Design the sequence.
């Protein structure tokens, strides 16, 4: 009996331990079949249909032709502008008028006869359209360029062909002395403390008063007359200067206001242009007499030094002053004139001392 009870206890212990092992295995290794099945179901589902196109996509598709047209128009205008700019730079207006003359005349010669057939009339109309459009474009270009050049010419060319009136008959033989203003008769400069300052060159009064007896004196400046007139009223209270010419009388070219002495209505053989920049700002440098630039020096005597030379020219007028000025090229005229005068006096003195004898011993 005891042996039977012992066997029943061992059997109960073995069965309990087996249940524990089975329950731990199931907890630690759960079955994978349900998850695999879920994944399979998820993969077997069909994808949802794409959403319908939005209104923004539809408007973008409609904007494509308009953007193409816009950029095409911009490209055409850019090309036309570049072509017109090149033609304007490379050819003068007369050259363009000559090159387009045949095209413009061909437009006027196109006629459609009344008895022509419909096909011939259609062909003639197509041909005339192909000719008329370029011809009208050429005419419009020429008209616009002519108007623009006339406006530009008003700023770049002197305001008149004759800047001065005719000489009085009593002054037919008088020489014309043209004076620059800046660095010749005065010096203007600007400072932050005082603004614009104008300093009169030493000797201006004596220079103008003395030479007004011999010359027709003219001031020719590249400043506006709004500046020149009030300055000359103070600089020349005795009105020794007969005429004043400002910026409007100059020729603007390559960034420089040139004095065109040929527009003065005076004999070029009798014009002297006295300036510190006579070679740079005159279209007739052969008429120029260069004076030392004035930079507000207190001991400047350049104007007074020029008086003997100018007075000698007026008292002994040469046939052409340009030849006289050319002989002084590369020299300071006042100093060279004094040297030549002394040399001439020395030679005359030697001729007097060693003159021909009327008899011999």
Sequence:
């Amino acid at each position: 009996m005891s042996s039977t009870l012992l066997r029943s206890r061992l059997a109960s212990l073995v069965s309990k331990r087996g249940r524990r092992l089975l329950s731990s295995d199931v907890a630690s290794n759960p079955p994978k079949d349900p998850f695999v099945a879920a994944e399979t179901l998820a993969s077997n589902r069909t994808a949802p249909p794409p959403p319908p196109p939005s209104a923004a996509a539809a408007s973008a598709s409609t904007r494509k032709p308009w953007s193409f047209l816009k950029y095409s128009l911009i490209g055409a205008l850019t090309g036309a502008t570049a072509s017109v700019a090149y033609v304007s730079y490379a050819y003068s207006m007369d050259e363009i008028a000559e090159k387009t003359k045949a095209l413009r005349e061909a437009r006027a010669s196109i006629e459609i006869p009344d008895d022509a057939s419909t096909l011939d009339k259609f062909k003639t109309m197509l041909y005339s359209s192909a000719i008329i459009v370029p011809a009208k474009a050429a005419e419009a270009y020429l008209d616009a360029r002519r108007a623009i050049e006339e406006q530009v010419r008003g700023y770049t060319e002197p305001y008149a062909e004759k800047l001065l009136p005719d000489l009085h008959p009593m002054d037919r033989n008088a020489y014309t002395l043209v004076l620059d203003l800046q660095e010749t008769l005065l010096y203007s400069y600007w400072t932050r403390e005082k603004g614009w300052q104008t300093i009169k060159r030493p000797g201006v009064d004596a220079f103008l008063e003395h030479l007004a007896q011999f010359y027709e004196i003219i001031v020719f400046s590249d400043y506006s007359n709004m500046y020149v007139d009030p300055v000359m009223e103070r600089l020349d209270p005795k009105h020794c200067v007969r005429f004043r010419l400002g910026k409007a009388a100059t020729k603007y070219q390559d960034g420089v206001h040139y004095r065109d002495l040929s527009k003065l209505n005076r004999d070029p053989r009798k014009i002297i242009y006295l300036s510190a920049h006579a070679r740079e700002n005159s279209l007739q440098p052969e008429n120029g007499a260069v004076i030392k630039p004035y930079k507000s020096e207190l001991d400047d005597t350049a104007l007074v030094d020029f008086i003997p030379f100018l007075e000698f020219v007026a008292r002994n007028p040469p046939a052409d002053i340009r030849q006289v000025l050319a002989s002084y090229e590369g020299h300071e005229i006042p100093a060279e004139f004094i040297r030549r005068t002394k040399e001439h006096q020395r030679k005359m003195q030697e001729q007097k001392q060693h003159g021909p004898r009327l008899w011999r011993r």
